[in-house]
Amino acid sequence: MYELIYLVINFSLLIDAQFHIAGDGKLAGVIEPNDAKCHMSGNFSTDFLTYDYPSVSQINYVAKENNVNIIFAIVKKDGTTLKESYQKLSDRIENSNFGELQDNDNNNVVNLVVKNYQKIVQSVTLTTNATDDIDVKFSLACKSSIPNGCTNVHVGEIVNFTATIQPRECLTNKQTKKIISIKPEALDESIIVELDVTCECSCSSIIDKTYVENATACSGKGDLECGICKCLPGRFGRNCQCDSSSSISEDTTNCKINEQSEICSGLGECKCGKCECNKRLNKDEKIYGKFCQCNNYSCKREGGLLCSGKGTCDCGDCKCQAGYTGDACQCPDSNSTCIAPESDLICSGYGKCDCGQCECNVDKGHSGKYCEECTTCPAQRCEELRHCVECQAYQTGIYDKNECKMKCMAFSTTIVETFYDENDDNIKKCRVPGKAGCIIIFEYTYDENKELIVRAQKEKLCAGPPNVLAWILGVIGTILIAGLIMLIIWKVCTTIHDRREYAKFENERKALKWHRNDNPLYKEATSTFANPVYNRSSRLSSK
């Protein structure tokens, strides 16, 4: 078990360890699934050996049902970070946020909670419990929009929204009414809509006084229902005057959209003054309309799918599902995909959102997914701000005290001990040279009112005096190491050369065709000569 530190605020959690998921309890012999209920007594769990850890979907369900917003405050531990893990967890839990802390300073924790709390309270997102057979679309009038909601909503600001509710099919007899709840996320207040879908009129009932069976007005071949003839099978026409065996009509006036158009749009036959549309080989593809001018298969396709698979084709036009728009329902109906993380501006304010993608002002040099890159824009304001920052933070630089007050009124520099490694594209980092060769480190950003905020590091980065002894020892060491390396290289080269020469000699010796003593060119080290004058017998006699 990992030790967890809970904050006073009931929707925040400070943690320095990986989270557990359903199934981890089996390691301790706990196999009973979590019941999504609270089993706490004081600050301890009473049934941690009875129920397994909850799943991510259970946490998401409970948080959504109880309007709880969860904030994960992740602390670095032993040089590691849990950011990636908790980012994925936050993506799967609605209305949850996360942030990374550099240390356990209470002020940092409070700032993180306040920052995420402001994001929560300044956003409004509408939700509904409508099922798939009912289409609900929201239209909100706000400056910064997200899917089904708005951001940057301030206290007292009124946000008007319109909900369009459309049933996709008739309700069954057992379920003639539906109760739909529409509410902002994280709030208990809601609007209850009672939806009653009427698929048939009362006049269509046989017990209605206006209902006439086999009516004369219907040529005796149909029933008069709500003033309209409902023809018997095989009969058609306004007054059921035609049957399916009727031949092709000579008078095709009623089968043309205008005098110049084709009969039944070229996709049917005119029978009894009415178009009978052709049948398609694919039963799912249909031709329909008074003049056979409509079909459900000729709409625009995207990704090989009719209406991108996010709508239905009706008379050549895509009828999109909620949340999508475009000729092929290929575009989201919100600008959320054009807003960079931690930003409220559409396409960073340098482009427009078209079909869920940013179209940047290329003529001004902007590019990137969110038009956040600019190759031709002037550099950051580091050089512009450096002199004011230096005089305000360190009382040094080209400005004296009076000049600093006169020329640096646009902002006030805040001194901080050190900067955290925040991955925020809105915060610009600056490192500029100052007096006496020191480096000044500061950062700047803008608040909601576009006011400049500047923070400078308390201590400058100044280089100390050179260490002469270290330089001397370094040079000597470098020379010794270089000489040793050269000796090693020379020894290796000579060894390789000697081995090659010896191998060459051995190969030549093995290639000889006779023994060296039989070689006519071979001469021994000693030579023997015979004296012809020498007489052995005379020598013996003289002795």
UniProtKB/TrEMBL annotation:
Cited InterPro entries: EGF_extracell, EGF_integrin_1, EGF_integrin_2, Integrin_bsu, Integrin_bsu_cyt_dom, Integrin_bsu_tail, Integrin_bsu_tail_dom_sf, Integrin_bsu_VWA
Any one GO molecular function term: integrin binding
Keywords: Calcium, Cell adhesion, Cell membrane, Disulfide bond, EGF-like domain, Glycoprotein, Integrin, Magnesium, Membrane, Metal-binding, Receptor, Repeat, Signal, Transmembrane, Transmembrane helix
GO cellular component: cell surface; focal adhesion; integrin complex
Location within or outside the cell: Cell membrane
Domain Integrin beta subunit cytoplasmic: 491-537
Location (main, coarse): membrane
Protein name in the entry: Integrin beta
